[in-house]
Write a structure and sequence with these properties.
single chain; 118 residues; mainly alpha; 2 domains
Length: 118
């Protein structure tokens, strides 16, 4: 096989290089696609923990980021992406459990409004 590759390289180096690159890319993207379909789906409605960010909670609970931003009174464009709930609670001077209960009640309210509109 190596002898054929050397022959192709001497006859048409550009075409051989392009073919080699194409084969490598095909293998890489096939592996990525396989890994994508084999891994488990992300968990839904995870128990809210202090280490979670508002964006993570919104994603896990399938709530629009605007709802989370309104509940936490943060800028919707930033979404508190880099601040976890523990940090936000500390900034406000409240226990993180209280903040989590506020978020849970807002999610329940959002879902009940969403279900009543259907």
């Amino acid at each position: 096989m190596l002898a054929k590759y050397k022959h192709f390289w001497h006859v048409a180096p550009v075409a051989t290089a392009l073919l080699s690159i194409s084969i490598i890319l095909l293998v890489v993207f096939t592996l990525r696609l396989t890994v994508f379909f084999l891994r488990p789906p992300p968990p839904r409605d995870m128990t809210i923990q202090p280490w979670m960010t508002p964006g993570f909670v919104a994603h896990s609970w399938h709530v629009p980021p605007d709802v989370m931003a309104a509940v936490l009174q943060i800028d919707a464009s930033k979404g508190g992406r880099m601040q976890n709930l523990d940090h936000l609670a500390t900034e406000r001077g409240i226990p993180v459990e209280e903040l989590i209960k506020t978020i849970e009640s807002a999610i329940a309210e959002f879902r009940s409004q969403e279900n009543s509109e259907k």
